[in-house]
Amino acid sequence: MADISLDKPEAGDRIPTVIADDVHIVYRVNGGSRGKGSATAALSRIMRRGGGESRGVRKVHAVRGVTFTAYRGEAIGLIGSNGSGKSTLLRAIAGLLPAEKGRVYTDGQPSLLGVNAALMNDLTGERNVILGGLAMGMSREEVKERYQEIVDFSGINEKGDFITLPMRTYSSGMAARLRFSIAAAKNHDVLMIDEALATGDQKFRVRSEERIRELRKEAGTVFLVSHSNKSIRDTCDRVLWLEKGELLMDGPTEEVLRAYEKESGK
Amino acid sequence: MTGATPSLGDGPVPAELAARYGLSVSGARPGLATYTRLLWGRRHFIVAFSTAKLTAQYSQAKLGQVWQVATPLLNACVYYLVFGILLGTRRGIPHDVFVPFLVTGVFIFTFTQSSVTAGVRAISGNLGLVRALHFPRAALPVSIAIQQLQQLLYSMVILVATALVFGSYPSPRWVLVVPVLAIQFTFNVGITMVMARLGSKTPDLAQLTPFVMRTWMYASGVMYSIPVMLQGKPDWIKIALQHNPLAIYMDLMRYALIRGYGAENLPAHVWLFALAWALLLGVAGYIYFWKAEEQYGRG
User: Fold this and answer.
1) Contacts A238 to B, Cβ<8 Å
2) What is the ipTM, given to two decimal places?
3) Residue B215, Cβ neighbours under 10 Å: how many?
4) Less Cβ around it within 10 Å: N or C end of chain A?
5) CATH number of A43's domain
6) Residues B88, B91: Cα–Cα separation, whole Å
7) Is residue A142 part of a domain?
8) Which segments constitute the ABC transmembrane type-2 domain (chain B) (predicted)?
9) pTM score, whole prediction
10) Could you tell me if residue A207 is inside a domain?
11) Secondary structure class of A3 (helix, strand, coil)
12) Radius of gyration of chain A, Cα coordinates, nearest whole angstrom
């Protein structure tokens, strides 16, 4: 991906950064089978079916044949009701969830914004900053360099020396601020943001929205999952509307949002 | 508004378009060499992650990190009470050898045992992490093995103290502790990777492994001497039990630390077998784990 302009076939062409080609994603859920959840029920189920694919395993077809191409410089919103497959699709684009069928092609490594999973409540905020930074793929030096920046941004230490306390002692707002600050410390090629980002009090919300704008400027392509039509309108120039895992509509923000609002009865 | 295949209708097919702009398949498994390089690049994360897990384990306890040493000590006491005093499995071993013999056995066995039991949940217990961040997934089993190694190093404090109390003073043989631990650690990394892959597909293994490990423990001579206890039994049973990797690692560690446990207690070709087991599991386990790299997010 060193110099794309060289092998650009037609001048003035848009450069694709993410191509989704008929992507299907299926989750397999153990113990989610119908009927009673007791041990005898589970046993008799195994006896009855005796082998085959679905021995107490239920399949959830979360994304069904989504195809689209995203280009450099685009900010794309993903909308749809709860459980429509938006977050799942993002994970597939990031290469974190294997597609059952179809393929996702990307330029560079798309990253989800968020490190929640790597952090541990029993550790101090300080160690979580380091752990989170390393988990996102920063080098030790990079983490050291940005440490103060992250702590200052989170504002955790504004009310005393909280950063040296275990994270489980933080209020939910404080913890959310620290998590966001760690996650937003790194720049990404293809950035994906999964809703509910603006957390914390008013002051922090303003600050985090500003940081997201910065990240967006530096990233090639941005995906944003959100239930707030306002933040989609503010951020995105193109919107994908997913419903029941299928791509219902793909087009300019205003057009898709208007249809979506009409459908959802707003 | 029902058009399900938008925007690409007139363009080239996606695969061609991707090829033309040099896009690669997202989430594809890298080659073994690249994979190893990526894994090495994540070494600081791996160490930080295992240290964090280890610290978090006792962070709510009042005594805190004292438990890192107190837990193995209590374990050793329980085993001594049951096997040394009540059951008397020390047949054929003098008393001042038996206590360090038993403690070494328990700690060395636990080193692998907890790697296996934790390894089953290496992927399935960290699915949130696997589904949120990019890193070679082998980082998870490796960090579990390192976590157990750190735990063992705490236990070594007790082990050395026990050896000293029962009259085994530092000798040049103590240097062997380092290669023995290195070999067993390699073995553990391999077996942890195997368990991690198996456990990611079949979480039920977490229920099953304790039984397998307990059988393995009783068969490996943790609290008794295999040659003494199996006298009169066919030779092949004795040889098979003595050459199982854990019996070998325990014997080597005892040989290194305990004065009264000489080379006559070791089976033939013991170092060769120790290395062979470690290399076999280490290499095969790594490749086996890597083969499913792109699948782990599915859970």
Assistant:
1) none
2) 0.80
3) 10
4) C
5) 3.40.50.300
6) 7
7) no
8) 63-292
9) 0.85
10) no
11) coil
12) 21
